[in-house]
């Protein structure tokens, strides 16, 4: 945080606080160890004075002022940056806040929607190696516990906001295709960072280790099951070195007409929730470093297969996907003319058919993501790499290393998912 100065902060917040003089600031880690992996997050507390005219206008009054902002920057360790592809991920987030989100807001404003999608935190600055965001904690938003799955009410709200976000892609792609595809060009738009064929060798050792860990956990959990080999055989086939990475690349390749700009990293830590009098009232989406142009089902399988308890998802998955489709179609209609494709070839029923086809096709993506996601979700903090250290053990290796844990919760979740996918005919 050495580049932060009072002048820097004063200039950054001048538009929002023109009558404030910032006098002091202090930065503290904005997340716990294990809550983020590719960047450092700080909460910067600012104090100063606010000057304004007295109620009768006769004199100037000074009063104490304070606020906080969120500051994201690249890890100090150059080895860690390289291992986790932090710089490429950071470029994605900068592109999102400086190019994609402004374009989406401008497009959305053209339609004068009564309740526009706004569940993205205000960005004060996004460039090179830092992103500065509004601190939503000040407004009562809280992060759910990464070790706990999403509750049903939370899942519905996440899908509602996500459907409205996805709808911006579908509507803009229809009405302004040239403008939309400019957002996903490889020069200054978002781009796939992980699942591209040229990364096959780069990630080979990483996934070899992650797969070995996952198979060991599933074998242990199913040791007494008479169907052990049925599940393990299909799991191993999916994870084979010849097939696995190519499958993930294929699943992340956009498929029209339903491809959208996805959030890309829909785990619990990237959702902030607000409760009013104990009732769930609002939520925000955070962290767009893995934003990608792909099937919306990439986000859906992440939320429903990885962030919900298995029994809860199985019981409500059809209703949740119906709800997502209703919200998605309802929102694109608000951003379309009466004779658009969303009333004909992509009407509600046609859209739902496509959503369900993509849901089934992309189910494997959930399993591929779970190989490293479940250990991240369930590990103790001291098992996770510490991104705030310049040179910790994890950064000394030759590349990115998966989180190592074999706790009971991780074993349970890592076993339930492939069993469900096998039972449902996905793998």
From TrEMBL:
Pfam families: EcKL
Domain CHK kinase-like: 131-335
Source domain of life: Eukaryota
Protein name (database record): CHK kinase-like domain-containing protein
Species for this entry: Arctia plantaginis
């Amino acid at each position: 945080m050495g580049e932060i100065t009072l002048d820097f902060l004063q200039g950054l917040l001048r538009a929002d606080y023109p009558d404030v003089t910032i006098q002091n600031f202090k930065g503290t880690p904005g997340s716990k160890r294990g809550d983020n992996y590719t960047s450092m997050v700080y909460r910067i507390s600012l104090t100063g004075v606010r000057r304004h005219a007295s109620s009768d206008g006769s004199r100037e009054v000074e009063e104490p002022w304070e606020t906080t902002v969120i500051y994201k920057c690249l890890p100090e360790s150059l080895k860690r940056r390289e291992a986790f592809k932090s710089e490429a991920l950071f470029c994605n987030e900068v592109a999102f806040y400086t190019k994609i989100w402004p374009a989406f807001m401008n497009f959305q404003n053209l339609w004068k929607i009564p309740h526009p999608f706004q569940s993205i935190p205000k960005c004060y600055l996004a460039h090179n190696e830092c992103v500065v965001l509004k601190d939503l904690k000040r407004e009562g938003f809280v992060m759910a516990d990464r070790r706990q799955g999403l509750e049903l009410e939370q899942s519905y709200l996440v899908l509602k906001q996500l459907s409205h976000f996805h709808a911006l892609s579908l509507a803009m792609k229809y009405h302004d295709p040239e403008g939309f595809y400019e957002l996903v060009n490889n020069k200054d738009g978002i781009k796939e960072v992980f699942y591209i064929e040229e990364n096959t060798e780069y990630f080979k050792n990483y996934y070899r280790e992650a797969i070995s860990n996952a198979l060991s956990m599933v074998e242990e959990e199913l040791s007494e099951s008479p169907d052990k080999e049925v599940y393990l055989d299909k799991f191993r086939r999916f994870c084979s070195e010849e097939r696995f990475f190519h499958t993930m690349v294929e699943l992340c390749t956009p498929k029209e007409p339903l491809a959208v700009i996805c959030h890309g990293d829909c785990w619990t830590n990237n959702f902030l929730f607000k409760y009013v009098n104990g009732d769930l009232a609002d939520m925000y989406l955070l962290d767009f470093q893995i934003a990608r142009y792909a099937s919306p089902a990439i986000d859906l399988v992440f939320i429903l297969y990885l962030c919900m308890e298995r029994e809860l998802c199985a019981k409500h998955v059809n209703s949740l996907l119906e709800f997502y489709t209703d919200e998605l179609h309802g929102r694109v209609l608000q951003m379309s003319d009466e004779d658009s494709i969303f009333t004909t070839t992509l009407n509600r029923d046609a859209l739902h058919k496509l959503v369900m086809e993509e849901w089934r096709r992309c189910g494997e993506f959930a399993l591929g993501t779970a190989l490293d996601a479940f250990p991240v979700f369930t590990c103790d903090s001291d098992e996770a790499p510490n991104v705030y250290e310049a040179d910790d053990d994890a950064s000394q290796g030759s590349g990115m290393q998966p989180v190592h844990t074999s706790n009971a919760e991780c074993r349970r979740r890592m076993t339930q998912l492939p069993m469900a996918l096998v039972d449902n005919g996905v793998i």
